[in-house]
């Protein structure tokens, strides 16, 4: 009985998978750390999602692959870019979404949508890592907060520090000198988030500001980062329950829409 | 090097706009240095990291010694970086072969025309010192070649815009860019054959038509990838290509010097020239209309100042008219980076 | 409205503005305590502050009274003055923004509008100001016309084309071909002919007639200003030097923005007097001056203080610069009897518009005239015509002069990629090598 639809998003840091039924209900999801064997970790995430759905792989009628590893997945039926998938996923969660900001491992993007959920314009970070998840990871390592601790730390900031660098390498040395100056970790973390949010705000303005706005990707888990970006843009973000899954969810919806409804 | 065997001299010419006809009239074959392959590592002792890949590649080629058979160098003063490169080669690297300059006038009035004509005279005298006096009638012949080349390129571009050319982007640009290094008679033969073989009577209606704007149709791997994705470049506003094609025939005065000077001021609007932005916007709009392009891809060159200052206004104007567009950046990497490929794919997914 | 605007401008130009400035600045702050490694500050700085504040202050009241022109630093402004234009210099304004550490925020405004991270930061600061209205000088009137000369770089043309499009106003260009070797008479004729052709154009735009008498007056005044500035710089040949190049960067503003006006001449007469007195009395800008350095390229405006301090602390006085020198250049060439031809030479032959061979000769000459024993080459990310070729220039000059040198990677206004600690280490290593030499 092939009646399920899969979405698989193989990103630079994590592979994420989602399984939907024919009505678009979420049945299960899975994740795996990205390894150089993209097909293997992709499979692992997808199997995890199928298993969580209490189903078998044979029941998957159609799978859409996305993320930077999408070309390396031999078992998907179609490949779509993460821009289209994040847009679709955000619209599935928040119908009418006009703006999607996604902060993933190696890319961040701002996507402007029209009323029907079609992509009007998008902007992505340039080659350097500033403004991406990698930047946050590097900063969390330097500050020794752990990636989960960075957001709460920034939230506890009591003092605004200036950070000017936009590049990971320079920002790291700037953070080190702030530490050397004896600044408190929460204040530094907040400064990092402001610097990054500023960069993201630039991307959003390129694509076009709009509301309702959705924040997706692992970066959405960082409360302080989200708040900083909200301040810069004057919008408030809706955050999915599991923001990292948004791309995979969009892919699964596209899989469902790619299959003509079967006549009984 | 076949040129040498044919008794011609060789000039290495840097981008972008210059009177090639004058070199031909002196029996000099121009080889343009846009994006040669090779090691830019050699340039790090001479150039800072914030220099564009065209200048880096060109200097890399020069330093590698590959240009040993070249008899002279011509440096059009297209932008600050190329202007300084000309002096760097001549004054700091102490190149002993002639390094000649061509300054494309940024003005447009009679003063600019007069200056272009006087510059043609001084460039010609400098060339005579390399290859001897110009043969009688040589300039008339060269100008005629130039006009025929323009005519053929115009036909090729029109056919492509109408969808009546059976050619991938790779094939199209191989043919068009052969003008960058072939002796004019050979280039003309090649363009004629290409047009004859590839022109179709009816529109082919294949692929998604887009307009490509930027500096170069490069790297080759990017063109191959676009071909594979079913993207059809229906028009281009590339400095190396479409911005050197006169889309309308130019009425030339009978005097070849005056004709050549006129041609130097007749190029399509360009970021490197004095043309106001509204002219470039109007030019782009025309290209979009006549080719039916469904979107515009701006392939930006990293560190290119002239293009970088013009793009925002172009983007704003086209966006206001609802033309879908995408901006991507390239450093002429041998393989298009994954992020670039993803952006173009996402753009195609979004085109209505 | 016009009579009221005229009246208001006339009042401000008279006593009003100075009066208001005094009111708003409140009691003068006591001078900051100077570190022992600096000599006493120049008295002229107060007058400099007054005239530059006035220049930007008056600009607020000039709209509708006189045509406002935005002008590139290397443009023959004398022509505009003959039409009564009020001229503002975006480059000078960008430098002011840089010194007030506003570079990154204004660059970001431009970047949000799509200008790339890699473009010239002077231009981006200006475009950022045009788009947002943000400026440290209160408020600038939008231009009625733009006047651009590409003798300092081709980038100003791209930048001014963008401004012309933004404001939908005319852009007047004087195209100055780059000079290889000896000056090309045809190129100079082209420059002169363009200047002449601008006269009817300017008459149309400004609505006033060309006043030839006024033009000649302005030319003479401009030549005197440039000559005075040259004399000011020459006082830095004294040992110890009465001021450093860091002072010169600041005191350069009038010859950039106000040349051709009497206020500019008066200012430099005063400054020159003060400097000559200092030389006579042996007042040192850097007490215990041990090394004399040449600085190449525009200033790092956001780091003037830390850099001047670092050099002074180590007994190094910056006494010569190519950038500061450039403003003394037109002096010899302006000739009121041949206004068009001499203006073409004055502006067409500035060193940034000539090949690197002549730049090497110029730098060698300056280095010798000012008894320099080290070179600091600022490689400015923003400024390609100034910076491309510096590595080779460095090698050639080290050989010609037998001196030490260092390349400092920085920018004029954008400190987002400035690594102060790394720069400090680099400069200290250079200074140590000077001590060892």
How would you sum up this structure, described in words?
The complex is a heterotrimer of chains A (264), B (352) and C (437). Chain A is globular and about 60 Å long. Chain A contains 8 helices and 10 strands. By secondary structure, chain A is of the alpha/beta class. The two termini of chain A are 13 Å apart. Chain A has helices spanning 38-52, 82-93, 133-143, 147-155, 168-180, 185-207, 223-233, 246-258; strands spanning 4-10, 14-20, 26-33, 60-66, 78-79, 99-103, 108-113, 119-124, 213-216, 237-238. The model of chain A has no long low-confidence stretch (mean pLDDT 90). By secondary structure, chain B is an alpha/beta fold. Helices cover 47% and strands 13% of the residues of chain B. In chain B, the strands form 2 sheets. In chain B, strands 2-1-3-4 form a 4-stranded parallel beta sheet, with helices on both faces. In chain B, helix 9 (220-228) links the parallel strand 5 and strand 6. Chain B starts with a helix and ends with a helix. The model of chain B has no long low-confidence stretch (mean pLDDT 95). Chain C is of the alpha/beta class and 437 residues long. Chain C has one domain (35-436). Helices cover 54% and strands 10% of the residues of chain C. In chain C, helix 4 (90-99) crosses helix 6 (121-132) and helix 5 (103-112) packs across helix 6 (121-132). Chains B and C meet through helix 4, helix 5 and helix 12 of B and helix 7, helix 8, helix 16, helix 17 and helix 18 of C.
Write a compact overview of the structure shown.
The complex is a heterotrimer of chains A (264), B (352) and C (437). Chain A is 41% helix and 20% strand.
List keywords for this structure.
heterotrimer, A: 264 residues, alpha/beta, Nucleotidyltransferase, domain 5, 2 domains, 5-stranded mixed β-sheet, 8 helices, 41% helix, globular, B: 352 residues, 4-stranded parallel β-sheet, 8 strands, 47% helix, 13% strand
């Amino acid at each position: 009985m092939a009646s399920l639809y899969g979405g698989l998003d193989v990103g630079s840091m994590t592979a994420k998978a989602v399984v939907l039924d024919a009505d678009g209900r979420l049945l299960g999801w899975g994740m795996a750390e990205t390894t150089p064997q993209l097909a293997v970790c992709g499979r692992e995430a997808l199997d995890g999602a199928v298993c969580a759905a209490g189903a078998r792989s044979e029941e998957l009628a159609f799978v859409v692959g996305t993320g930077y590893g999408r070309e390396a997945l031999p078992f998907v039926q179609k490949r779509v870019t993460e821009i289209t998938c994040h847009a679709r996923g955000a619209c599935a969660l928040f119908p009418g979404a006009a703006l999607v900001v996604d902060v993933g491992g190696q890319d961040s993007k701002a996507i402007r949508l029209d009323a029907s959920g079609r992509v009007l314009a998008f902007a992505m970070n340039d080659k350097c890592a500033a403004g991406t998840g990698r930047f946050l990871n590097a900063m969390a390592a330097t500050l020794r907060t752990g990636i989960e601790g960075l957001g709460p730390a920034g939230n506890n900031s009591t003092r605004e520090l200036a950070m000017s660098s936009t590049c990971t390498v320079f920002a790291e040395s700037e953070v080190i000198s702030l530490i050397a100056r004896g600044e408190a970790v929460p204040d530094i973390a907040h400064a990092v988030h402001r610097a990054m949010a500023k960069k993201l705000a630039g991307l959003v303005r390129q694509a076009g500001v709009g509301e309702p706005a959705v924040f997706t990707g692992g970066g959405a888990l960082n409360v302080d980062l989200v708040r900083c970006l909200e301040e810069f843009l004057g919008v408030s973000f809706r955050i999915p329950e599991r923001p990292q899954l948004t791309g995979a969810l969009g892919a699964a919806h596209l899989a469902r829409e790619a299959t003509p409804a079967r006549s009984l | 090097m076949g040129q040498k065997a044919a008794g011609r001299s060789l000039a290495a010419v840097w981008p972008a706009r210059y009177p090639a006809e004058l070199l031909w009239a002196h029996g000099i074959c121009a080889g343009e240095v846009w994006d040669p392959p090779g090691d830019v590592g050699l340039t790090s002792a001479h150039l800072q990291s914030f220099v564009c890949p065209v200048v880096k590649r060109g200097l890399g080629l020069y330093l590698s010694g590959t240009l040993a058979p070249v008899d002279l160098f011509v440096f059009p003063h297209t932008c600050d970086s190329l202007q300084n490169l000309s002096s760097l080669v001549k004054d700091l690297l102490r190149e002993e072969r002639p390094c000649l300059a061509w300054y494309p006038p940024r003005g447009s009035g009679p003063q600019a025309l007069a200056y272009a004509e006087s510059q043609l005279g001084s460039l010609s005298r400098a060339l005579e010192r390399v290859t001897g006096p110009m043969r009688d009638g040589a300039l008339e012949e060269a100008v005629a070649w130039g006009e025929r080349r323009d005519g053929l390129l115009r036909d090729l571009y029109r056919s492509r815009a109408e969808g009546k050319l059976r050619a991938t982007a790779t094939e199209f640009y191989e043919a068009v860019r052969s003008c960058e290094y072939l002796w004019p008679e050979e280039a003309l033969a090649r363009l004629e054959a290409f047009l004859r073989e590839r022109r179709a009577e009816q529109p082919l209606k294949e692929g998604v038509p887009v307009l490509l704007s930027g500096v170069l149709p490069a790297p080759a791997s990017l063109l191959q990838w676009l071909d594979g994705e079913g993207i059809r470049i229906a028009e281009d506003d590339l400095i190396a290509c479409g911005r050197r094609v006169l889309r309308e025939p130019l009425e030339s005065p009978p005097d070849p010097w005056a004709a050549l000077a006129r041609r130097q001021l007749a190029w399509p609007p360009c970021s490197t020239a004095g043309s106001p932005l509204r002219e470039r916007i109007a030019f782009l709009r025309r290209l979009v209309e006549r080719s039916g392009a469904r979107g515009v891809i701006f392939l930006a060159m990293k560190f290119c100042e002239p293009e970088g200052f013009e793009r925002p206004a172009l983007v704003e104007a086209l966006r206001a008219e609802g033309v879908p567009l995408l901006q991507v950046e390239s450093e002429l990497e041998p393989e298009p980076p994954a992020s670039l490929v993803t952006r173009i794919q996402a753009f195609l997914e979004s085109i209505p | 409205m016009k009579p009221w605007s005229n009246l208001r401008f006339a009042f401000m130009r008279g006593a009003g503005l100075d009066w208001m400035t005094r009111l708003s600045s409140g009691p003068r702050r006591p001078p900051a305590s100077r570190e022992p490694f600096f000599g006493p500050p120049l008295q002229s700085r107060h007058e400099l502050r007054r005239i530059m504040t006035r220049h930007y202050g008056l600009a607020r009241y000039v709209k509708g009274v006189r045509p406002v022109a935005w002008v590139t630093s290397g443009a023959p402004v004398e022509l505009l003055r003959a039409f009564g234009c009020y001229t503002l210099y975006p480059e000078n304004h960008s430098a002011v923004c840089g010194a007030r550490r506003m570079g990154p925020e204004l660059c970001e405004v431009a970047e949000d509008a799509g200008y790339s991270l890699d473009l010239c930061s002077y231009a981006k600061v200006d475009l950022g100001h045009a788009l947002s209205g943000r400026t440290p000088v209160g408020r600038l009137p939008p231009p009625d016309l733009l006047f651009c000369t590409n003798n300092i770089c081709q980038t100003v043309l791209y930048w001014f084309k963008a401004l012309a499009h933004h404001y939908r106003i005319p852009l007047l260009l004087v195209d100055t071909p780059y000079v290889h070797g000896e000056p090309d008479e045809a190129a100079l004729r082209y420059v002169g002919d363009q200047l002449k052709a601008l006269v009817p154009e300017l008459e149309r735009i400004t609505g006033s007639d060309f006043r030839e008498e006024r033009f000649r007056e302005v030319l003479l005044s401009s030549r005197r200003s440039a000559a005075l500035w040259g004399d000011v710089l020459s006082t830095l040949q004294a040992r110890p030097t009465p001021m450093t190049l860091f002072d010169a960067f600041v005191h350069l503003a009038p010859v950039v923005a106000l040349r051709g006006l009497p206020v500019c001449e008066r200012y430099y007469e005063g400054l020159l007097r003060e400097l000559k007195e200092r030389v006579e009395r042996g007042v040192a800008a850097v007490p215990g001056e041990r090394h004399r350095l040449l600085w190449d390229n525009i200033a790092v405006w956001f780091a003037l203080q830390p850099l001047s301090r670092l050099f002074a602390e180590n007994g190094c006085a910056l006494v010569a610069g190519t950038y500061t020198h450039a403003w003394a250049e037109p002096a010899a060439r302006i000739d009121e009897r041949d206004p068009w031809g001499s203006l073409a030479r004055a502006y067409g032959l500035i060193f940034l518009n000539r090949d690197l061979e002549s730049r090497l000769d110029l730098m060698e000459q300056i280095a010798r005239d000012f008894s320099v024993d080290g070179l600091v080459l600022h490689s400015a990310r923003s400024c390609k015509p100034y910076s491309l070729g510096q590595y080779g220039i460095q090698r050639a000059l080290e050989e010609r002069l037998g001196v030490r040198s260092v390349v400092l990677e920085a920018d004029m206004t954008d400190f987002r990629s400035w690594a102060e600690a790394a720069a400090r280490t680099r400069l200290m290593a250079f200074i140590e090598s000077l001590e060892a030499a």
